[in-house]
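To illustrate the input format used throughout this study, we show a single complete record. The first block contains the structure-token representation of the backbone; no residue identities are included at this stage. The design step must infer an amino acid for every position from geometry alone.
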């Protein structure tokens, strides 16, 4: 159950049932999600008004049963079956959503132990396709109101077996922006308009050239973002957004040139993919609409030009399709995922299997 569903249920149903014996919190292996949801409905979200401590205790007992079943589904059998993997994935997602609402700390402590055991047993498909792609690491401020907005994101949790947190790109930009914001007051006090550097003056006015070349497009893009978007001066919101849009347009233009000005080399395709990934991450933070409109045009041209390696190895595997709830706070987790985007040239969305019951 998601946090939002829990909030809805909490507003409709005042609190929880009375405490019941631990052995009444059984979750079976046949249909664990159904059993779990029934416990939540009958032990945590019923109509009686009782003490908050009872609510918490009933949820904690339900959560303990969920943790036990997830562990058994993943580790108790030699060669975990696909069916058990799907059950564990679905129950883990349900449990995490409720933990974010009711009591995240036991989840946050346990999920690290689960991750370590998954990696120890080299269950890399489960690690990459479930824990990482579905962002089932520790609860934090992005999905739980019980944490402060300046809570440290769990980047380290995902930094194993060649993976990074799916939200790392937008957080990198956010961190740089916050650092710049910390310097704005000092800059406003110590610097008069006549003393602004050329870059700061351009950032404030929005009057700068956004040009990227085929030689070093990613480095040039990052330089433009740092100089004119993450500036150390106070910039009007309208100018700031216009600067983001200007640099994004330059990124789209050079990606198009790298791929379609003649036959692209492997190096050109790598450059295009790296910049596209960076641009998508920033778009997810500053506003994804332009990216989401344009990426369909890029996909269609890639397929028209029969650049199938780029399509399969870059756009599909790197999930460079439309921004969605998996990588942008602009969307709710209940919003539909862009599965159809990837259903070309025999491909499917890399995350389709883990979301096929959503």
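Output of the design step:
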């Amino acid at each position: 159950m998601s946090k939002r569903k829990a909030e809805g249920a909490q507003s409709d149903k005042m609190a929880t049932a009375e405490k019941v014996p631990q052995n009444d919190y059984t979750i079976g292996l046949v249909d664990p999600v159904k059993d779990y949801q029934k416990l939540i409905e009958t032990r945590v979200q019923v109509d009686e008004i009782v003490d908050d401590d009872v609510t918490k205790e009933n949820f904690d007992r339900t959560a303990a049963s969920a943790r036990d079943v997830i562990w058994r589904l993943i580790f108790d059998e030699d060669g975990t079956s696909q069916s058990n993997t799907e059950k564990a994935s679905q129950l883990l997602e349900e449990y995490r959503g409720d933990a974010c609402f009711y009591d995240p700390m036991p989840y946050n402590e346990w999920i690290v132990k689960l991750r370590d055991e998954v990696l120890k047993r080299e269950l890399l498909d489960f690690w990459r396709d479930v824990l990482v792609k579905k962002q089932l690491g520790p609860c934090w401020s992005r999905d739980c109101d019980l944490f402060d907005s300046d809570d440290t994101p769990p980047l380290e949790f995902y930094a194993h077996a060649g993976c990074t947190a799916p939200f790392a790109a937008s957080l990198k930009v956010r961190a740089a922006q916050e650092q710049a914001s910390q310097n704005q007051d000092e800059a406003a006090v110590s610097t008069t308009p006549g003393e602004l550097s050329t870059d700061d003056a351009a950032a404030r006015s929005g009057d700068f050239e956004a040009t990227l070349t085929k030689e070093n497009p990613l480095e040039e893009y990052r330089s433009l973002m740092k100089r004119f978007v993450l500036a150390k001066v106070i910039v009007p919101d309208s100018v700031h957004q216009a600067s983001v849009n200007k640099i994004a347009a330059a990124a789209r233009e050079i990606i198009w040139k790298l791929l379609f000005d003649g036959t692209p080399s492997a190096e050109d395709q790598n450059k295009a993919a790296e910049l596209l990934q960076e641009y998508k991450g920033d778009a997810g933070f500053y506003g994804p609409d332009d990216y989401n409109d344009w990426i369909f045009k890029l996909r269609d041209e890639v397929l028209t030009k029969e650049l199938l390696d780029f399509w399969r190895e870059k756009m599909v595997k790197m999930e460079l399709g439309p921004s969605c709830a998996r990588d942008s706070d602009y969307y709710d987790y209940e919003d539909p995922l862009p599965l159809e985007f990837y259903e070309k040239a025999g491909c499917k969305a890399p995350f389709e299997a883990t979301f096929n019951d959503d």
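Structural context for interpreting the output: The domain at 199-341 is CATH 1.25.40.240 (Serine Threonine Protein Phosphatase 5, Tetratricopeptide repeat). The mean pLDDT is 83.
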